User: Fold these one by one.
Assistant:
Number 1:
Amino acid sequence: MIQALRGTRDILPEDVGYWQLIEQTAREIFTRAVYSEIRVPIFEQTSLFERGIGEATDIVGKEMYTFKDRGDRLITLRPEGTAGVVRSYISNKLHAQGVQRLWYSGPMFRYERPQAGRQRQFHQIGLELLGSGSPRADVEAIAIATDILQAIGLSNLQLDINSVGRGEDRQKYREALIAYLEPYKEELDQDSRDRLTRNPLRILDSKDQKTQEIAQDAPQLVEYLSDSSKKHFDTVLQLLTDLDIKYQINHCLVRGLDYYTHTAFEIQSADLGAQATVCGGGRYDGLVGELGGPETQAIGWAIGMERLVLLLQKLQESPTAKPDFYLVSRGAMAEAQGLVLAQKLRNAGFTVELDLSGSAFGKQFKRGDRSGAAACLVLGDAEAEKQTVNLKWLASGEQQAIAQSELLAMTEELKTKLSL
RNA sequence: GCGAGCGUAGCCAAGUGGUUAAGGCAGUGGAUUGUGGUUCCACCAUUCGUGGGUUCGAUUCCCAUCGUUCGCCCCA
């Protein structure tokens, strides 16, 4: 048997309702803030991600799906959305049109060990706001994220926020941190020792007891922030308070992608396992310039769809569509008329499920009942002969014979009855 | 990339080194050849993820492999 590749998953009809709920909610909220959808390619030149995300990051170093195509081009399946959107912003000179408010959704690919809430092909909805350095831009972006999460019914979420400063601030801090930690090298846990040169900021977040103690007295990133960066951060926090968005400052919060500057944030759920982050993002004022565009200030985030679905599954049954009518028919003439009637009702705006089995009426009713339909439409030889149809409301059992033409003429009445 | 657990039907599962692998849900057919939600009956795994080994004999023990779950790492 051919099985789906490791870390990929089929989203089956029984679950697709969750996905549609999330997508629809996000779309509405984006639209209200006048964000436009952008659709960019799923694969790009490998160098885009190397330059954008950073050569030293885990994502680029060991998680990308990279291959050569038949034309010998080095290609990578996108591991995240921002680099592609920024590339498009530059290629299409969108910067010439002022501030760009964009959103996207779709699959991303990372070669990781799968576990709950982590797959190799996973899906994100993301926002990118390009062309503004205002703290209000940061807060608008964050507010849209919290609105979406709230609108789909999630609570018990926590917003962690930090400022990672400008690239050069962070570089200076990084050096100071390494200088501080170096003497303790032997006392650090194995993971942290490995991170010392690669990603020292993450050491502050280590779960190891001893490492925690050492990290207590380490220099703090805030001390290295420029005055303007501090001011920006303070304003962001003030604006969040104005919007009544609760947050927690987390000085250890750093993001794994090199392009972040100033504001960095994560939204986590306590109801997930180790993969608790449902939304992550931040400001990336250097990226557009880095990739060959004009210096442009920007902020963005991405939501992990699979993780949201996991949370929703705990909260509610999968939203499924129930038909208004279930059409029961038996006999050649009746079945032909039934198909025509079903189509006409559908065109009039009703959802109609057509029983194709040709089995006994009893069986068809049983299936009709299970479909959750409000009513059955029954067509047998007798009805076909007279061009009528029996309308049976399943809740009450009440049944009436109606001319087919009349049924189609009473759509308003039916819609009222179905509360459509 | 590292550590640990798991893998019996579409789903949930019981089971044992020995001729025929419980049960439930779902599905299909029938009781009821024109009327559902209840009930009853029948059917539904030559096979226990896959490959190899040990054994007279393995779904059961061992190894490998694939998948999955949890944690580390990383991240959405």
Number 2:
Amino acid sequence: MKKNKRSSLQDIADAVGMTKMTVSRYLKSPTKVSEDTRSKISAAIDLLGYIPNKAPDLLSNAKSFSIGVLVPSLTNQVFAQVIRGIEEITEPAGYQTMLAHYGYSPEIEEKRVEYLLSYHVDGLILSETIHTERTRQMIKMAGIPVVEIMDINHPPIQYSIGFDNIKASFDMTSALIDKGYKHIVYLGARLDMRTKLKLQGYTAAMTKRGLTPQSIMTDKPSSYSLGAKLIVKTLKDYPDTDCVFCTNDDLAIGAIFECQKSNIAVPEQMAIVGFHGHDVGQSMVPQLASVITPRQRIGNLAGETLLSAIDNKLDIIAKDRVFDVGYKINLGEST
Amino acid sequence: MKKNKRSSLQDIADAVGMTKMTVSRYLKSPTKVSEDTRSKISAAIDLLGYIPNKAPDLLSNAKSFSIGVLVPSLTNQVFAQVIRGIEEITEPAGYQTMLAHYGYSPEIEEKRVEYLLSYHVDGLILSETIHTERTRQMIKMAGIPVVEIMDINHPPIQYSIGFDNIKASFDMTSALIDKGYKHIVYLGARLDMRTKLKLQGYTAAMTKRGLTPQSIMTDKPSSYSLGAKLIVKTLKDYPDTDCVFCTNDDLAIGAIFECQKSNIAVPEQMAIVGFHGHDVGQSMVPQLASVITPRQRIGNLAGETLLSAIDNKLDIIAKDRVFDVGYKINLGEST
DNA sequence: AATTGTTATGTTACAGGTAACAATTAAAAT
DNA sequence: ATTTTAATTGTTACCTGTAACATAACAATT
């Protein structure tokens, strides 16, 4: 089943009685070889079935026309949209995306960065601002452009594109307080950096307005069912609660479903708020209050920045390495 | 910013006054070099920061310990779960996943297959049974194991793992008819093969029971909002409708939300049914009726089958190349 | 003292495509 | 007829790690 090795340029060349150089030329710029040769090589390729080989490209220091994209999770729709945004830019420019995920762990991220660099990607997009020391060292050694996305609270390695999670969370909390809520509880899952930043913003807003911050945190991964569990726990631990601010939409939607099951009126008895503005939440009844973040735009900008950096076109932006895309507060129908 | 080339084994070797062969030995099996050399090389690597290089591996015909996984879409949660299932098996076995998507297009799939093969993946998992001629030829030439997943209605290239979309759709439709629904409309989006197979099963069941199959099809990609639009169109085009069978959960959930907005009682006035059994649908109120498919299990089995084939352990299964994982009909609360 | 065994390291060759330069041939210009 | 130019193809060298084999140095055994 697997004996006959795939054919190389040499095999094609032998078949037509020429050198592989000529075959190489045929593939890269057909007009550089004679009409006659062209058709002979074409026939030989049809017969023998040539599959391109990336190995020599990597071996020489040629551009690989591939970029590495690292996201924490593939099940998280937020990143699916970011990826789409990236590829909208990089695909038309001829770059292949090498995608990997690291389950929110800096150690796994390190392994993934090594993996991507071992394939000589021309640039890297990371979804995190926290990295291991070796991750940073490898990136520096590789000497390729890097764009960090999603949060802009840490100084970037090179460029960063995202929004201020602390401020977003602060603003949403303030808006909820303005609307009259007094007992707002923050629900956090998967204790990654962004969850912590949002808690920080929430806490600051509550404290500033003389209210007591209260939170329920778990390191379990987010899911609808976890949202359901957390709202139950909230009602038990903090019976006065009139609003829950969830670290993401999945938790919030799960919480709403649970309230619907238990006949708790949303928002009359319980206001529920999420983060990011997922499609589900925005389409559902009641429409979920959420911090709407421009995921696709982040992807677009990350792609553009990376490509510009790869092409050394970034002297101008060099001073302005952090790009804030902002966010929008939507109080929806669930508050 | 990008002058200093990353260091090669030769650079490390030069730094400690040895040949790169010794450095190579140190990396692969440290005990093969002397204690003294070991610490010197280790120090040099720390200083110069060696990043592994896949190029020579690819160039020689060494196993790459990578597998290619092709999914139609990353935004589709179904495939996110399949991927998780695959990696649960392949990661611990030391294989890296090279992931690519092709937007339901056989032509793009062809490009992606070429891309993956150009990186010498050891095996391939495809989410489709329809491929271009060149895709098939390349796979044959490459001589690597291939597993096709999701549907088992077409004879596989080598192995296939999934379920019978026609039968699943037939069974669900029959169950709906049994429950008393008479005017069931099928809603289809993104007219890929599986949508068509499901329509086929639906049509067969309706016809068999003396009912008139009616469908609304669009080639737009599935989304919640499309589900909303389609239910509106259904009510206009087929006012008698008492049940809609959607080609996937996204459409169904969008339809339910729309009904909730328009005060159409689900299921009393309109029953709504989806396909796959997404978390959202299973958690929501009312719980969505759906064909529950074992996505993660498909991934697990695909991973296991592929690894076995890579290790040439599949003489036994060779006769039994199609694996049916089945499905479950859940009539939920939305019927 | 001569032989064998062991350990550590070195040498050579190879995988496949392409840049850079060289060579050949035919056609065009003097 | 001779030189110039253009078009086409060939040659060489290179990128990097490792398998396979070779060698060196020294310890252990007879």
